[in-house]
Amino acid sequence: MNCCPVSPCPGTNRFFTRWAKNYAKQFRKKGLDKAQQYLLEGIARVPIAAPEVLDIGCGVGAVHLVLLQQGASRVTGVDMAEGMLAEARRLAEEKQLADRTSYIQNDFITISHQVPQADITILDKVVCCYEKADDLVEGSLNKTKRIYAVTHPRESFIVRWGFLLYIAFSQFVRAAFHPYWHNWQNLRSAISARGFRLVYENSTFFWNVLVFERA
Prior knowledge:
Order of helices and strands: HHEHEHEHEHEHHEE
Largest sheet: 7 strands, mixed
CATH architecture: 3-Layer(aba) Sandwich
Strand order of the largest sheet: 3-2-1-4-5-7-6
């Protein structure tokens, strides 16, 4: 995705802002979804005292807010949707964590040079939102000191074809946003080639959860 720094990806912004309040309501009511619980389970495999966290495509901040409650020192959240970040700030205030968070509304690839390195980098359900996922992975790995946690669509027949049908329909109706299907094995290989080893893997019906540690 090529996004302008003044108005980052307007279609993506509108699409996810529309759902932001629902995501925040769901988090308040039910907490983390199963894939996010697996992310934290995997991250816990590599104990780090008071880690700094980079959450790319952070949404309403569910994962990183729990990490802050568990002892993370600081979080930088990046997202294209202003509505998502508004809800993330509101949740951080409610949980008295706002002083340990900072948020940037933009495409991470566009502003990666402005983003600090972190002990833990999280990409929860975001690689499928990028046409050029390789650029996203490359840029985010450069910011990762220790742990790289990523969630991508599961490589099953049902999920793959359901995903592709949704993409085709979104393109047909000229929706403001549509996701992308990538070769997820190539994504895993690219991460490993950069010196990261897989320490945790789990899956839900729809999502595959991978956590890597810098070797």
